[in-house]
Amino acid sequence: MSAHAVIEAPTSCAVLPVVGSDTLVPLVDGRSVPYANLDVAASAPALQVVADRVNEVLPLYASVHRGAGYLSQVSTALYEAARQTIGAFVGAREDDVTIVTRNTTDSLNLLAGCVPVQADGSPGRVLVLDVEHHANLLPWQRTGGATVLVGGATVAETLSGLRAELARFPYALVAVTGAANGTGESRPLAAGGAAAHDAGARVLLDGAQLVPHRGVSLAASDVDYVAFSGHKTYAPFGAGALVGRRDWLDSGTPYLAGGGAVRNVTLDGTTWQSAPARHEAGSPNVIGAVALASACDALAALEPGELVAHETELRARLVEGLEAIDGVRVVRAWADAVDPVGVVTFSVDGSDAGLVAAYLSAEHGIGVRDGRFCAHPLLARLGFPAGAIRASIGVGTTGEEIDRLVTALRTWVSEGAKARYEVVDGCWVVSDDPRPLLQVAGLSGLFATAAAGNITAAVGCGPAPA
């Protein structure tokens, strides 16, 4: 898939069919409408071809790698073929390793244990920006070798600050986002990567948002490592990937201690495998890996530039609609950012972000994300410590869904909500919600789990604690 080619006649129809695109959800007025899923940046629905592939291979599932049975051999072949497909999708070089993980967070925690220590035994230095989401911030902070650089008002200013910091100390790794989780904005990979390599550092690309929207090539970009998630890449079956240079992964601390990661075990010690097995202890997620590989194949098969054109058209349509509404402001990190992916964050003057999101769901059947998007430092720096609202576009998004969101926000500003809302366990909900639950086994209430565990403060429904 080409990242920059342009389709002459973009369309506002879905690019690929996704599971659940025709799901009806109830509104507080008693109607049911098709769900408008504008929260794909958090977790994207499964592509229909991915779901079909999972159904195809489930009867073939068995133990992997050490099973003598026929289906064990089939499952092993499926898993290893998926590994090759996943690596190829992100342009893996001949000597690169593809490790199947759970998600981007898992991948970056794994890599954090592989960064070589300094000559004095202290943690290897890692440079990150404050625009990173928590998956690409917390693992480095925990190792003790992280320096967090505050981004500038522009991409150019941020790159200048990056070069200056790289000149101050010898860094082992520069960990950067491909597209910001909070705003969808990206930076020129070539410029940032060249600055890091010129200073003797390697480059880790957090591809959680970039890979499913634009694609990445390690070989073409000369990035050293990329991490991404299946659940954001239309394969929400519990797999992600870390792909990159072998030497650190072969010598780094095994991510999990257990079977499959070892060559030999005695009571006196353990001899570990090289990567990827070194970091894949336990029974691997065969179905998740196959699902992710299927999604990679489907995205790679799109016409060059088709996905970019789709997202560019719908994003522009959304931004134009939002900026035409009094009191609605689009949140941007950089004034000169180019080629943003299909993620748009905004605020509504005088309105709590969680309340607006609850209104959009209950009265219009629209799903968006509210809060701080696992990017607390960035939202605080941009002036939104209590959070904002994020709408995100994917292969299944249509122009009608974008128009529904804009119309609903215009109604909110001019007329307000029809239903009554209150805060329960930190989240806005409809008072005496009349909507019936969908008939799903084990579901007794929309907020039953959250209320029982009181987890809403942890997941970020409310503003930052005082």
From TrEMBL:
The keyword Transferase applies. Gene3D superfamilies: Aspartate Aminotransferase, domain 1, Type I PLP-dependent aspartate aminotransferase-like (Major domain). Residues 37-405 form the Aminotransferase class V domain. GO terms for molecular function: transaminase activity. The keyword Transferase applies. PROSITE patterns: AA_TRANSFER_CLASS_5. Its cofactor is pyridoxal 5'-phosphate. Keywords: Aminotransferase, Pyridoxal phosphate, Transferase. It catalyses: (sulfur carrier)-H + L-cysteine = (sulfur carrier)-SH + L-alanine. Belongs to the class-V pyridoxal-phosphate-dependent aminotransferase family. Csd subfamily. This is Aminotransferase class V-fold PLP-dependent enzyme. The lineage of its organism: Bacteria, Bacillati, Actinomycetota, Actinomycetes, Micrococcales.
